[in-house]
Every structure is written in structure tokens, then in C-alpha cells.
Write a structure and sequence with these properties.
Blueprint lengths: L2 H7 L1 H15 L10 E5 L2 H15 L5 E5 L11 E6 L5 H10 L4 E6 L5 H5 L2 E4 L12 H13 L5 H10 L13 E6 L3 H16 L3 E5 L15 E5 L5 H9 L3 E3 L5 H18 L18
Parallel strand pairs: 1-2, 1-3, 3-4, 4-5, 6-7, 6-8, 8-9
Helix pairs in contact: 1-10, 2-6, 2-7, 3-6, 3-8, 7-10, 8-10
Length: 292
């Protein structure tokens, strides 16, 4: 069995661990009313986007999300959350070092003795969610489970949907689609971008992601019978109807958005293998970007 396959299958159990951990680390994460930023690179940035939007939806405080190399030096925060699976990503490390002494920082990582952990004021170690595969799956969703539990989400339904997603049938004729589009609204926009990244990384697929209401503003012109349009969470039904009118295939299951990611991760592996790619070791990618 490929590493990524077993890592995908382990996710619901990891979410339970993260939810159980959340009360113990609550004091390390942004407090209600505290302004905050969440940073990361690649997948970690998409999870940061989801968390920032979710925290604002819950009216818990102004929250920005940024790629680690693009955090604005002109804004002030009470706390910065840095997400890094390996704890070695250069951009995250440089940003934390630049913030030292000016703002409270917490690293969420799978490697507690890593450089990123050492550079942050505090560390939340999710070492139980570490991965062998280059492509992130369970670490990302386990971080999100922790952050969702921290902002007050109950995860029982998400865990149940995640378990069901491990057995759900994938859309038929996957290899016949030439374009995959993922749509989200609110906090799931970040997850739509993460879904697109998974297919891009593992299977070199043509994938796109948009806030659902923006899809009509140009991108829909590329849709047709070879397009799969997938709703992550609740999406305006009118947008999906317009996409269906192009001849595109629509997936709108209504499961918890984290469970939708599980299904999409499985789809990425299947597509990769159909095209002769190794989803554990995608071309041109390494487990972490470490710069000179």
C-alpha cells in the first residue's frame, strides 16, 4: 500500500485526537477578540485561509491569512499562528524570526524539535499526524480539525462523514475529465484551493478553484462536457445550475467539507495512478521547501 493511501484512511481517527487535544492547547491559540494572523506555504496556507475565515465567521476577532513570505509588515496582531508540517520551510522560519519579540507566535507542526518550532514562542505538536508522502493529506486536515474544535465546532458529524468518505464511490469516468473546478464559499474557499492543489500535485491535472459567486465572472467560459465542478460545503445553487447548463458534471454531496477533502484526496491518487504517476513522490516536489 502507498503511504498516501494509508495516511488518507487514517484521517477520521486523527481528527478525534485533535479534537481531544484542543482544550489543552487553547491558551496557545488566539483568544476570543484577539487580532490574529495565520501563515503557511502551499497546503498550510490554504488551511490558514480556512481558519482565518472561520474565526471571523464566528466573530472571534479580526484574522488575516497570508503566505509566509507575504505577511504584511504594516499590520499589527495579538498573535500569529504558523503552520508547517515539517517545521523546516524557509519562508515560515524567516517570518517567525522577523516577528520575534514583537508579537506572540505559535507553531503548529508535526515535528516538535524542528527549526520552526524553535523560532516560535510556543509549539503545538501534532506528531501523531506526521506523514511519509510528499503530498499533504492528514496533517493538513488534522490541523484544521484542531482549529475548528478551538473555535467551537463539534466534529462528530465531520468524523462520521470522513469515515463514510473512505468508502464512497468516486465520480465515474475520472480519466475522461479534462478540467476539475472546486468551488467554496466563506471558510471553504481555502479548502477549494486545497482540493485543486491535491489534484495538481499528485496527478498533474488541470484544476482551478474559486469563491463560488466568482465562477460566473469569466472562468465558467472554459466549462463544458469535460469539466467536473465540485462544491465544497454549501454553495449557491444558482452557480451550480449555471455550471450544469454548460454540460459540466456537478458534484454537490453536502458532506462536511473536511470529508469532501478525503474523497478528493482519494480521487487524486486514483488519477495519478491512472496516468502512471507516483502520488507519494510527485515530480518537481519535495516534502519541504528549504532555501539556501
Amino acid at each position: 500500500m502507498r503511504a498516501i493511501t494509508s495516511e488518507i484512511a487514517s484521517q477520521p481517527a486523527q481528527w478525534r485526537k485533535a479534537a481531544a487535544l484542543a482544550p489543552a492547547v487553547a491558551g496557545l491559540l488566539p483568544l476570543p477578540g484577539e487580532s490574529a494572523a495565520a501563515i503557511g506555504c502551499g497546503t498550510s496556507h490554504h488551511i490558514a485561509r480556512a481558519y482565518a475565515a472561520l474565526r471571523e465567521e464566528r466573530n472571534l476577532g479580526a484574522t488575516d491569512a497570508a503566505t509566509a513570505s507575504e505577511l504584511s509588515p504594516h499590520r499589527r496582531y495579538g498573535r500569529v499562528v504558523a503552520i508547517s508540517r515539517s517545521g523546516t520551510t524557509t519562508e515560515v522560519l524567516r517570518t517567525l524570526e522577523g516577528l520575534k519579540g514583537s508579537v506572540a507566535t505559535v507553531a503548529v507542526t508535526a515535528v516538535p524539535d524542528s527549526p520552526v518550532a524553535a523560532a516560535a514562542d510556543d509549539t503545538i505538536a501534532l506528531d501523531f499526524a506526521n506523514e511519509q508522502s510528499v503530498v499533504q493529506t492528514r496533517f493538513a486536515t488534522t490541523v484544521l480539525a484542531l482549529l475548528r474544535a478551538h473555535v467551537g465546532d463539534r466534529l462528530e458529524a465531520a468524523i462520521g462523514d470522513g469515515e463514510a468518505a473512505l468508502a464512497r464511490a468516486l465520480p465515474a469516468g475520472l480519466s475522461e475529465f479534462r478540467q476539475f473546478v472546486f468551488l467554496g464559499q466563506g471558510w471553504t474557499v481555502g479548502l477549494a484551493n486545497e482540493a485543486a492543489l491535491k489534484l495538481r500535485e499528485a496527478a498533474s491535472a488541470w484544476t482551478e478553484a474559486y469563491p463560488a459567486m466568482e465562477y460566473r465572472h469569466g472562468p465558467i467560459s472554459a466549462a463544458g462536457r469535460g469539466t467536473l465542478v465540485w462544491a465544497i460545503g454549501a454553495v449557491d445553487p444558482g452557480v451550480l445550475a449555471d455550471a450544469a447548463a454548460t454540460g459540466a458534471t456537478i458534484v454537490n454531496d453536502g458532506s462536511d467539507p473536511m470529508a469532501e477533502l478525503v474523497l478528493i484526496q482519494r480521487m487524486a491518487v486514483e488519477l495519478a495512478e491512472a496516468h502512471g504517476f507516483d502520488p507519494d513522490h510527485p515530480k518537481h516536489l519535495t516534502r519541504s521547501v528549504v532555501l539556501p
